[in-house]
C-alpha cells in the first residue's frame, strides 16, 4: 500500500517498529470501553497482528493505518472495521494517542484522507461511527467532515459505574 498523504499527516501501513506504540495504545484502560476490550493485549499478539496487517481488506474485513507526522512519528491510528464489500460500507474509528497532539487538526486531516480513500479507491457507499454522547471532541470532529447523526443507542456503554448513550453517525458517498 502506498502512503496516503494529507495536508498535515500521512497514513501508512503498520510496520514492525510500531509495536511499542500499538501496545501502549491498545492497553490504555481508559480507551477500552470504546472497543469493548476487557483484557490487556500482549506484545506477542500485537506482533502477530502487525505481521498479518498486510492482508487485503476484502479478506481481513478491517484496515488499520498509522497516523504519522511528516517526520514519520506515529501519533495515532485510524481504522476501517466491519468492512462489508456486498453493502459497500465500513465502520471508522481513530485515536490520537498523546493529548498534546490533539486539537491541532491531525485527526481531521487523517479522517479526510481516509474518507477520500474509502470513497474513491475502495468505492464504498458509506462509512459509519458510534460516539459516546459525552465525547464532544469526537462529535465535533466527525460532524466537521460531513458525518450526520442518524440515531441513538440508549445506555449502550457501561463504564466507570454509569451507562452512556452512543450516537450513531454516517456519511454517504453521494
TrEMBL record:
Domain of life: Bacteria
Domain named N-acetyltransferase: residues: 9-173
Name of the protein: GNAT family N-acetyltransferase
Alphabetical list of Gene3D superfamilies matching this protein: 3.40.630.30
Signal peptide: none
SUPFAM superfamilies linked to this entry: Acyl-CoA N-acyltransferases (Nat)
Keyword check for Transferase: yes
Keywords: Transferase
Keyword match Secreted: no
Molecular function in Gene Ontology: acyltransferase activity, transferring groups other than amino-acyl groups
